[in-house]
Amino acid sequence: MPNGAKPGLPPAVPDRQPRLNPATAGAGGAIRGCAPRTREKTAREREGATAMTTEHRDKPLRVVGAYAAQPDEAHERRAFLEEVLSLPGVDGLEISWGAPGWEQDAPLLADALGSDRPNNRGGRGGHVLTLIGAAATMAAKAPSVGLASPDPDGRERAIQLVASAREAALDYLTRGQRIVAVELQSFPTLAQADAGLGGEALERSLCEILSWDWGSVAVVLEHCDARTATLPWQKGLLPLDIEIQAVAAAAARSPTPTGMAVNWGRSAIEERDGAAPERHVHRLRSAGLLRGVMFSGATDRDGAYGMAWSDVHPPLREQMPDSVMDRLKVAATLAAAAGSGLLYDGVKVAVRPPQTTVKDRIAAIRGTLAALDGTSPLPLDPRAR
């Protein structure tokens, strides 16, 4: 590993830059607006690229962002992960790669997803790596850091993070685990007047990232709540239409599979409206960019999950009455996404209070999964509310 980094951990500055995908190279191997990074591909990457084959599926992979509901105690997390991966219909995990606490989570995940484990699906399943925790942490420490940053140094640091995530995806592949997508976000938070500049910076970043050889791993931009003039914001990232323009422009110059994803809760938070996620899905489907939908709730009042409209992933209204995400809204969002070529869908819910048992954590996940399947979830134990 470079610079003495531990396996699976993001080095501060990658010393091995991704190989340029020759299919995206123009004259002299360059893409407009991007500074290509070229080098010979390692034997490990050649092996990983061979493993990244396109698989025909009649329905999207179903993943669980288990990290949002995992117990605080590390010794309980292994059994929790085993139970999540054993839930009916679950194909894999949304993994918060490089986030705070990753040094504790990485070995547990490596063990739970090992090729000799019973839950290893021999390539039939798959996982999504999300950079939300790592990118948000970097932006909190240095507000100029992000793929949409007009500041060149801040944008470069964010690109380096993505380069490290690509290395991690290849590591998973060599261990026999399929990575379906790496999910990015359009940090940093910018003033509304700078949103256009942020979109241009995002396009340049994506142009460079998509020029790397990703095999068949998709690069997906997750839409988070945008900064608006009239409503408080949580992440406060770029408006959906600006993100669409940047992704579409970069995708037009690269064969790397790409697109965008909707997080149900973050779309609802953006507009303070439980119908907003369905509208965002329709918008991305019309643009031909919809690749993922993750169901994570939001609340419209203060309560056990904190202040109203916080980005804290409550489960369904049927399980937690303060939530604005219910079975009918889940069904409407899925109907809007049907036939759009989704790569993945899934759930990411958190549980309160912190001392909630593993059994009740699994119940919260199972309940939201039931809504995706059109069945009725069981109420949660009142102590978990």
TrEMBL record:
Region (Disordered): 1-54
Chain intervals with Basic and acidic residues compositional bias: 37-54
Pfam family, one: DUF4862
Protein name as annotated: DUF4862 family protein
Species the sequence originates in: Azospirillum melinis
